[in-house]
Amino acid sequence: MDIDEILDSVSLIHEDPKAILKSYTKEVNFPKGHLLLHAQKCEKSIYFIKKGIVRAYSNTAENEVTFWFGKEGDAVISMKSYIANQPGYENIELLENSCFYEMNNTELQKLYNEHIEIANWGRKFAENELLKTEERLISRQFRTASERYDELLKNHPHLVQRVQLSHIASYLGITQVSLSRIRAAKN
Amino acid sequence: MDIDEILDSVSLIHEDPKAILKSYTKEVNFPKGHLLLHAQKCEKSIYFIKKGIVRAYSNTAENEVTFWFGKEGDAVISMKSYIANQPGYENIELLENSCFYEMNNTELQKLYNEHIEIANWGRKFAENELLKTEERLISRQFRTASERYDELLKNHPHLVQRVQLSHIASYLGITQVSLSRIRAAKN
DNA sequence: AAGAAAATTTTACAAATGTTAAATAATGAG
DNA sequence: CTCATTATTTAACATTTGTAAAATTTTCTT
């Protein structure tokens, strides 16, 4: 997924301000297993996935909890860092060799104050991410683990082959044994 | 909480653009029990709470699930309506006689395209709401019902006296009987 | 203040989910 | 291809949470 498509999918933007945005973007590659963002660290950059799959997880006292999966076109970002300049929740691990568009946070903030179209692009970016986060919250509050498993299969069809079921179980908020029971019941 | 304090708490903004924003704001009052926003309906306005407490809930096939409580300074808003012009999830019920600042969505969108400071104020607004929503999601994913009950007491100390425990239980994602057990264990 | 209604807690039991460990299946290295 | 390693499923049992109903407490009305 190329940069034009990604920027436009956030919000349509004229060529001139888009060219400015793009000039602050650079392409970076990392191998499977690489940690792109680190929990408890204030991250300086945000990323958009050109190619690849990633997962976000946090370590608790007892175990590791996966709370998000990202794919082509998705933003990989610590919102706490981006918005509040504070350490974030997420470790982001690459589930395959991946390619990203990287933007520096400080430079982006500067652009927001200089170009109204870029400011509104940034506004739409936050708004879109907000809708997605709200949808995740609603999903957790209103749907069972089994329903959310179906959702996950639908939104990330290739994921189940590539990710350990223990990660998916923690994403669903259940144990791996429970997930096995859910899967068994679907056959 | 007055309008200046609310607007500034979203993001500091100079007097001129703030005056413009304020000129599009009007004060409205409604009694306890009033439904301010309606699920499955595209809402035309957003509100900020000057005085009062509200709760957001959705009806499922079986029952009613409360998923948010709002207090002074909070935005009462259907994000789906505000951002995507689509019907939202939330019924918003007033838990006491309340006073709001109302802004019309269409007019606000127009201002975003005309004034860069207002565009960036709107960006910060979405970003702040995003952080709050993310915090709610993290809370649900990483904390037990008992811990979330403590959080709720801390964030909304006056709430427990004013809201039925069945609403709080559904907010926590447990039954009222379980909540009673949790409360009993804390004494 | 008394009685009725509503809200909350408690009880007893059922159902669902977690825990631990063993069995089976899948993956990868040599 | 075979063996060793890792991942997943299954089984047995313990614990937690839900359900339904009764008991108690609180709130509201008169």
Automatic annotation (TrEMBL), chains A, B:
Lineage: Bacteria, Pseudomonadati, Bacteroidota, Cytophagia, Cytophagales
Superkingdom, taxonomy of origin: Bacteria
Cited InterPro entries: cNMP-bd_dom, cNMP-bd_dom_sf, RmlC-like_jellyroll
Cyclic nucleotide-binding domain: residues covered: 28-115
Organism: Belliella filtrata
Protein name listed in UniProt: Crp/Fnr family transcriptional regulator
SUPFAM superfamilies hit by this protein: cAMP-binding domain-like
